[in-house]
Amino acid sequence: GLGDRCIRAVPRLVGTKEQGSGSGGDRGVAVLIGLQLEASNLERTLDRGPSAESEDAQRFRAFWGPEKSELRRFKDGSVLECVVWAKPPAGRQAESK
Q1: Other C-beta atoms within 10 Å of 6: how many?
Q2: Digit-coded pLDDT (tens) for 28-41
């Protein structure tokens, strides 16, 4: 997932949602997820995932989707699933409490 960028993730149930009427209506829950992030890793633009040949590679691709996950070959010859992040615009800063 987020590797060493995320220290902790805490889900919180904030309500339920009912749409439509009768037994055929869509029902679901609303969940808020809080993330505690590691500030020293926030500006990194590349996260290396598992080897392309490992069993974890398929789960990594399924989690991040084809828009974010891509195969990369490195100088040491390894081929890894990776996620590339866009660098935030200049002047944008992370806030910390």
Answers
A1: 13
A2: 888 899 989 888 88
Q: In angstroms, rounded to a whole number, what is the distance separating the alpha carbons of residues 9 and 1? A: 11
Which residue type sits at 10? Answer: V
Pair of tokens at residue 85: 């992040």
Structure token digits, residue 56: 């974890």
Beta strands in the chain (DSSP E): 6-18, 27-37, 46-51, 69-73, 79-84
- 83: burial class by Cβ within 10 Å (0-12, 13-18, 19+)? buried
Task: Tell me the whole-structure pTM to 2 decimals.
Answer: 0.62
The Cα–Cα gap between 36 and 12 comes to: 14
